[in-house]
Amino acid sequence: MNSDDLRLFAHIVRVGSISRAALETGVDQSTLSRRLAALEAELGVRLLHRSGRGVVPTDRGARLLDYAKAVAGLLDEALAATQEGVDGGPAQLHVAAQPTIASMLFGPLGKALGARYPRTRLRFVEGLADQLLEKLAKGELDLAILYLPEHAGALQFDLLLSEGVRLIAPADYPAPGGEIATGRLRDIPLILPSTHHGLRLMAESLAARHGFAVNVALECDGSTGIMKRLVQQGCGCTLLPLAAVIDEVAAGRLKSYRLLEPEVRRRVGLVMGRNRVLPAGLWDAVRLVKAQVNGLVVSGEWPDTVLETAAAPAGEASSA
After folding, report:
1. pTM over cut 0.90
2. pLDDT digits (tens, 9 = 90+) for 248-294
3. Checking DSSP bridges between strand 48-51 and strand 54-57, what pairing results, if any?
4. SS3 of 269, please?
């Protein structure tokens, strides 16, 4: 079995006729029939039902067709990748991030990528980590910037930065703003996502280390905006990075408390899709992403963050 035979088989199925496929591909009809017969003999199954009206795939042929299309697609992508000049960038680039990261990074990154690759079709995707990891596995994304958990897992990533996690409270919360001991969370009703989300898992881990159970006032799997609105309405407090609430804190609509003893931080890493041919220029795009992240952290535009330059182990992304 080879890729050319799979392409020819897929073409025959698409046009529904061996004679028409021969005309369109420029392959002699007898040669095409012979190669198809050899493919069926190698696999030991009949791939096509033949009739006076043409051909249709058998059940086994339909199964092979899915693989034939996938192989043809990968070969086309590989050809395009090798023919593209790195200086011109990839034909398309799909970059994803979780909501808070996206709000900080997508603006400057879009401007930088657009200037660097004016002919590249850019797509930005915002979502939760489990959604983005699924898209990475399917080859629908080239890069994703995600929050990482405390414990190592199977996913490979490049560590970018760490970001402080704050207790976010209503504007009339009685404690003075600034700092609060992590252990005091035992007495604070929290608004958190449900148990499979990374932010909830982080809260549960913090509570376990400090010897108490999380006081969940309300579960909310909605957007960060909804979480903030619930806090403003006095439904409880929540845990978020400062970047997610900086405008509301500056306007006096919310209060922010740094969690200490020790300081609570989450790491952010860059993950690349691994089950597809990498588009030309991807490594240059990765360097550009890292440069934008570095600039935002060093300038203070991404608040409460610290660059992480140490080599990162394999890790598994969170879902918040």
Report:
1. no
2. 999 999 999 999 878 899 999 999 876 555 555 688 888 899 999 99
3. antiparallel
4. strand
- What are residue 270's phi and psi, to 5 degrees? -110, 130
Nearest Cα neighbor of 145 from 193, 104, 115 is: 104
Element at 23 (helix H, strand E): helix 18-25
The answer to whether residues 150 and 303 touch, using CB atoms and an 8 Å cutoff, is: no
Q: Which of 265, 260, 305, 300 is nearest to 165 (CA)?
A: 265
- Strands (DSSP E) contained in the chain are 48-51, 54-57, 92-97, 121-126, 143-148, 158-164, 166-170, 178-181, 190-192, 216-219, 238-240, 254-260, 265-272, 305-307
Cα gap 128→306, rounded to integer Å: 23
Q: Is 30 exposed, middle or buried (0-12, 13-18, 19+ CB in 10 A)?
A: exposed
Among candidate residues 76, 78, 45, the one with its CA nearest the CA of residue 59: 45
Q: What is the DSSP letter of 280?
A: T
| 79-88 confidence digits (pLDDT tens) | 666 655 545 6
Residue type, 138: K
